[in-house]
Amino acid sequence: MTIVIKGGTIVTADLTYKADILIDGDTIAAIGPDLSGDEVIDASRTYVMPGGIDPHTHMEMPFMGTHSADDFDSGSAAALAGGTTMTVDFCLPAPDQGPLDALQTWFQKAGPARTDYSFHMGVTWWGQKYFDEMPRVVEAGINTFKHFMAYKGALMVNDDEMFASFTRCAELGAMPLVHAENGDVVAFLQQKLLAEGNNGPEGHAYSRPPEVEGEAVNRAIMIADQAGVPLYVVHTSCEQAHEAIRRARQKGMRVYGEPLIQHLVLDESEYFHPDWQHAARRVMSPPFRDKKNQDSLWAGLAAGSLQVVATDHCAFTDEQKRMGLGDFTKIPNGTGGLEDRLAVLWTKGVGTGRLTMNEFVAVTSTNIAKILNIYPKKGAILVGADADLVIFDPAATKTISAKTQKSVIEYNVFEGIELTGLPVMTFSRGRLAYKEGDVRAEKGNGRFVERPASAPAAKALSTWKELTAPRRIERTGIPASGV
Ligand code: URP
Ligand code: ZN
Ligand code: ZN
Ligand code: ZN
Short name of one Pfam family for this protein (predicted)? Predict the structure, then answer.
């Protein structure tokens, strides 16, 4: 059966034009005027864009003594309702668990996914077994390895481990990702704040100032440069982090920055809300920042020094958040956003003139597909590409409310935001997967998308060459020993 999406305005990362799209099976078969097919979808007065790709989600993730509340079933329903047709989740091996073993667990978790998915592999510990298994992880179609520079005593890896792992990534044509916060400084500040009686959610923000992020991003960039590998900085939330990325890119290093939709629109005042629950619901790392930092992130997206907008969707219920009553360090870190990313970015970005429509497509889909090495199968409207499409009505309006969301938690951090411009239909590999409030994709429809190793690793700019091929100096005048 073929489907024609008729009369729409196609918006890609670099073009805006009117044409029909013919879908045959999983893929786009033709793009042009006056196409016909078995079924016709009227897209006049709407935009047709590549489906969103969310490069950063955590479904059913064991974390801080609990599990994130959305699984691949509810999470992928939320994704489709928000115009997102692919998510990249984090496979996190338990202490000393081999990454290949952990991958089996994550494949099982992802079984119910309604839309396509991939994984990043977490470097949650380091050792010979991990090193040995990395090539097979890459062969399995995972070309990215995530390092936590924070969460001391749990997920955090140290600099020596990071350098060894980054070097291994370089050998394999894989790319390291970093959660960049100085975990030692955060742990010190947390204990200091608790000792001084600051145990509320505002302590979370005080213990993770922009400086701890800026320092860690700089450090990770220097380590990546010495290892000769590109670097992707997840949840880039502040100017210090952006500045480090911008500087590295100006020097020619391949460093990518990923702001979250939450950091772009929500600010630190949320943590000073008198209602404990309101503030705790918004506890995530890094915390929300002030307006100056937000402006820096918006500017980076427009300028291209930041490339991607993600959600870090990691939803916890109120009951889970209450684990941190009386001690903010025990509030599970994470917020939702998967269902709202596209529409919020459109209203707050395109609607205000901060982003063009084409930039919007680039940062929500195309850039992500390119960086993660799945372009043009994903992230493109081209003949032969997967028919992952979102029909976006720029005139549709909605006020965000937890009452109508697909996520299983009882609140939404964007509650009350008024949206103009909404995804009204989502196609996932050629099938109508969502229409006007209704998720139609079956559980288990999603497929794992292999992401091959990228061709040659970035070349280091600094001392790397000398480190790997040190010159030997023939010395004279060596003092006699034992004198
Ligand atoms: O607070 C956050 N971001 N929770 C999810 C885990 C992570 O650090 O990405
Ligand atoms: Zn568990
Ligand atoms: Zn993180
Ligand atoms: Zn995350």
Answer: Amidohydro_1
Q: Using one digit for the tens of pLDDT, what is the confidence trace for 118-162?
A: 999 999 999 999 999 999 999 999 999 999 999 999 999 999 999
Check pocket membership of 333 for ligand 1, CB cut-off 6 A.
yes
Distance from the alpha carbon of residue 335 to the mean position of ligand 4, in angstroms: 10
Domain assignment present for residue 285? The answer is yes
Cβ of 285 less than 6 Å from ligand 1: yes
Whether 314 contacts 61, CB under 8 Å? yes
The residue nearest atom 9 of ligand 1, judged by CA position, is 312
Separation of CA 135 and ligand 1 centre (Å): 26
- Domain range spanning residue 378? 51-423+449-461
Helices (H) and strands (E) in the chain, counts: 16, 20
Question: Distance (Å, rounded) from C-alpha 377 to C-alpha 132?
Answer: 30
**375-431 pLDDT, tens digit each:** 999 999 999 999 999 999 999 999 999 999 999 999 999 999 999 999 999 999 999
Query: Is it the case that residue 464 has pLDDT exceeding 50?
Result: no
With a threshold of 0.85, tell me whether the complex ipTM lies above it: yes
Choose among 39, 49, 9: nearest CA to 427: 49
Within-domain flag for 400: yes
Q: Judge whether 246 and 305 are in contact, CB under 8 Å.
A: yes
Shortest CA distance to 386 belongs to which of 141, 53, 121?
A: 53
Cα distances from 363 to residues 59, 252, 340, 417, 430, in angstroms, run: 22, 21, 15, 21, 23
DSSP state of 322: G
Residues 262, 235 contacting (CB under 8 angstroms): no
Q: Is the CB of 312 under 6 A from ligand 1?
A: yes
Question: Is residue 457 over pLDDT 60?
Answer: no
Q: Give the count of domains, the chain.
A: 1
Distance (Å, whole) CA 278 – CA 344: 20
Q: How far is the CA of 285 from the centre of ligand 1 (A)?
A: 5
User: Does ligand 1 lie within 6 Å of residue 58's CB atom?
Assistant: yes
314 or 228, which is more confident: 314
Give the pLDDT of residue 461: 55
Spatial distance between the Cα atoms of 44 and 47, rounded to a whole number of angstroms: 8
CB of 121 closer than 6 angstroms to any ligand 1 atom:
no
The encoded tokens of residue 199 equal 């145990």
Task: Give the pLDDT score at 194.
Answer: 98
**For the domain that residue 350 is a member of, what is the CATH number?**
3.20.20.140
Two tokens at 356? 């063009």
Per-residue confidence (pLDDT) for residue 467, from 0 to 100: 53
For residue 68, is it within any domain? yes
| pLDDT value, residue 480 | 85
Judge whether 34 lies within some domain. no
> Which residue in this structure is represented by tokens 């003949």?
383
Residue 458 has pLDDT above 60, yes or no: no
